[in-house]
Amino acid sequence: MSLLLYIFIGYSSFNGGSGTINLYSARTLPMANLSFNMNISYAQHSYPQAPTEDFSKSHIIGYSNLGLTYGVIDYLELYMGTTIFLKNEQRGGFGEPKDIYVFGDKDIFGGMKFYYPLIRGEEGFFNWLVGGNIRVDASPFHSSKDDSLSLNQHFEPCLKHKMDISVDFLNDFEIYPLLIHANIGYQFRGNNYEIPLLDTLRNAYFLEEERKDLLKWGVGIEIAAGTHTSFLLETKGSHLKDNGADTTMVSFGIRFMTSDNFNIDLGIDYLLNEGVDYIPDWEFVGGNYQSRIDDFGRWRFKVGFAAKGSLIPERKREKPKEGIIALTVNDIETDEPIRASVSFRDTILGVYETNELGEINIPLSPGVYHLRISKEGYITREAAVTLKPASEVNINTVLRKKVEPKGILTGTVSSFREKIPLKATVEFLGTKLKSITSDSLQGVFNSELQAGTYNVKISSLGYLPKTFPIEINDGETTVINIQLMEKLEEKKKLILRGINFASGKSTIPPEGYSTLDKVVEVLKANKDVKIEIGGHTDAVGSATYNQKLSEMRALSVRQYLIQHGVDPARLVSRGYGESKPIAPNTTREGRYQNRRIEFIVISE
Length: 604
Description:
Helix content: under 10%
Strand order of the largest sheet: 1-2-3-4-5-6-7-8-9-10-11-14
CATH topology of the largest domain: Porin
Structural class: mainly beta
CATH superfamily of the largest domain: monomeric porin ompg
Number of domains: 4
Shape: elongated
């Protein structure tokens, strides 16, 4: 990982020294590495054709930095270079007027950069580097042709000035593939030398002898997109001492790198401040000199090239001899060998499997390895191993079977109205568990389950199913007793007993309420059926009297059901008197059976 970071950061910035487009990186070139860089920047703006001229014109400014950077040791680099400028008034129009241009050396510079790894993460995935940069700039050159361009074409001149000294504090946060650069610094600026220009420009603001010091800052993000490309996003600014003028720009860029240590940078700068651009030219307005500003001039385009290499040939290192991890895996309770899977935290190594004897020999390069030994149904174990060259590390380990927390589910299933045991199916919805069945004699069911929550469905032929959640706790028995309602189907008959009407009366006795309340629950559960309530008597008394009595008793039952929430439209009452006996009327038991209320489903 550290090698990748050296690749990404080990190229020169446009300012000289290793870094990005406009910022320094804290990290320096590796020891005995030399980097050569050439960078070009370009900005332009155009002017409308003046009434007194028969051509249009554009002002172009270009700079090129040529520099060398050398890694003295891994934490210190030296760099030097020069800046060449080109100023060009490009003319177009009738007669193809000739362009006017000048180029020369703007300054020379040199410096040193150093850093210290404050935090160095495991395997280089996170590093925090702090560093410093000291740079000296001087401008000993001056061109009379540049003076002429300043007077006639209104370019600001490149003036000779005394030495500038810059001191920067650098921070790098390397969280691969993200690299964050933060710079803050101060520039002590030397004053301009006296230049024998014409008196008309002597007092212009750009010819003042005193140059103000600068406070500088910058933040950038570098994203590695593979081993040969990175994307750059930066912002950089300066604050001019005393007059408080601030300048801020943003930059976007992309860096292409080859395996031969050559890279190409493409970038765009944009000035965020209004009233400022990258073209150093001026105009005379209202008796004052001022900068000429154009919105397109706030854009600057950059391209850079750099190449680096080591001055000391790299020694070929012999590959260390492999060692062997000899692993044996057994069951902790039975001591039987286990065919277990062996994997590593470094997934590149793949997955191995022990043989039928629970053994495996894994040849590996020297280093520290984190093993993960696993088998379905067993608790996974992990181990750290340090393997030395040509050595064998024997590991005898055991695995313990997983103990699943379990509980018991038991209960009964019966009919709601008559309390008859039912043979029912118990299903565990949403699981792969097999259903269980209650016995038909007692309605009892029983099952051992893993602890947890289950959605249980209990169903039986001729009854409405029930679905509800249950909680099974480890080591506990959960008991549920379920009653199922009859499923009322067309022509199905229910015979009610337990409503002992007084002789010759149709009033429902209190002891019959519980029987009818169960009927209410059954009807509410089967909410779409229509019921006939039939009243029946024994043969004691006249047939006319018994017919009338059966009708009154059926009507009383209907009214009770309505009063307890059953829709009247679902209920029809009829009296059958003694016409439909179900037992002989010659015995007391037979007459008891014939005195009854029957419910018959007439529609669903």
